[in-house]
Design brief:
The protein is an all-alpha fold and about 180 residues long. It has two domains: about 55 residues, no CATH class; about 130 residues, Ypt/Rab-GAP domain of gyp1p, domain 3 (Cyclin A, domain 1, Orthogonal Bundle). It is about 70% helix and about 0% strand. Helix 5 packs across helix 9 and helix 9 packs across helix 11.
Length: about 180
């Protein structure tokens, strides 16, 4: 993993190395030899535009966090109002979700399934997964205060609630349609 990340930092000095990349790279070297892992990482960063997640200023991460906030407002208004009252913002819990493509947040097999769909659907699928997590955890989250909420979401307290149904639920959110609507405003 170290060799792949060093090679990438030298290959693309504009992006270099960003902390979330190590989780992405870890998944790649599990399946691939170093050279193949390097080229797949290049592909993820260039073709799947993850470079915008890691570029200085983190433009893709910022965009995803903004979109997540708007989507929570649309799909889960009670949770949105609760988060607003507590001062909880997506940057406080979802940055790791997105920057690691959920590799940090889930055990390896679950993260690999998320990656399978991400590779087909693209970056917006990450929003679907985030919404599914929040929807499943919503009844519990509505009972928590600020500190409990952040700990629950950052320490992966939702794992006890998550089953394979997360994928079915993630598929129910029509993020692409809603994003077109939001971008028109």
């Amino acid at each position: 993993m170290y060799n792949v990340l060093c090679a990438y930092a030298n290959f693309d000095p504009d992006i270099g190395y960003c902390q979330g990349m190590s989780f992405v790279c870890g998944h790649l070297v599990y399946y691939l030899n170093e050279e193949d892992a390097f080229w797949v990482l290049v592909s993820l960063i260039k073709v799947y535009e993850l470079g915008e997640m890691y570029r200085p200023g983190l433009p893709l991460l910022t965009t995803l966090l903004y979109k997540l906030d708007r989507l929570i407002q649309i799909y889960m208004p009670n949770l949105f109002l609760h988060f607003q009252a507590l001062g909880v913002q997506p940057v406080m819990y979802a940055s790791e979700w997105f920057s690691t493509v959920f590799a940090y947040s889930f055990e390896f097999n679950m993260a690999a399934r998320i990656w399978d769909v991400f590779l087909v659907e693209g970056v917006n699928y990450l929003l679907n997964v985030a919404l599914a997590i929040l929807k499943i955890a919503e009844p519990h989250l509505l009972k928590l205060n600020f500190e409990q909420t952040i700990l629950y979401l950052k320490e992966r307290g939702y794992h006890t609630l998550i089953t394979q149904s997360i994928f079915t639920l993630a598929d129910t959110f029509d993020v692409k349609l809603i994003m077109k609507f939001i971008e028109l405003k």
